[in-house]
Amino acid sequence: MDRNEEEFIVGGYRFATIADAETARMEEKKVDNLERNLDYRQPQNVLLVYNKALDNRVFLTPIGFAYLHKMQNEMIKWGVPADKIRPVPLYTAYSNKTENNSSIRKSIAARHPGIEYRGRFITSVLINVILVLLVAGMMVISWRSDTPNIINYRTAIENEYSQWEQELTERENALREAQRKLDSTK
To answer: Phi and psi at residue 14, in whole multiples of 5°?
Structure first.
């Protein structure tokens, strides 16, 4: 193994970046310091340090998580009730790396029936609501439009014919009036 490769390895873990490896090295020093100064025979003090480490996110790598797990085991061994020991929060999502794995999908489906369909259902409902709103908007536009369409064509045609009829009646009356004037002047 060359020197560059060794820069990525800390505590039996190979990290993806040098920065992660440096973080792990710093956590190793923190663990060593806690190991020297922490008395596991005083479980209340261990619980206090453990909770403070969780609250302040002191440990972010597998090195620190392994130490937190050791602290959990020691507290249980010295009589701290399990319900008082908070679980170690993992601040990394693993699902994007494993969601394409069919065995993991089957396991999730077995533990949580319907969870796969819940997302599809919500998406389907949202799409249907959007489509209904679009159809309602098109209908409002059609009703308010002046151009004839399938919704208001009958009314538009009747209005157009009545307008023509009125114009024709006015022209006929004007012609009759002009005819009377001509007849009366003769």
So the answer is: -105, 115
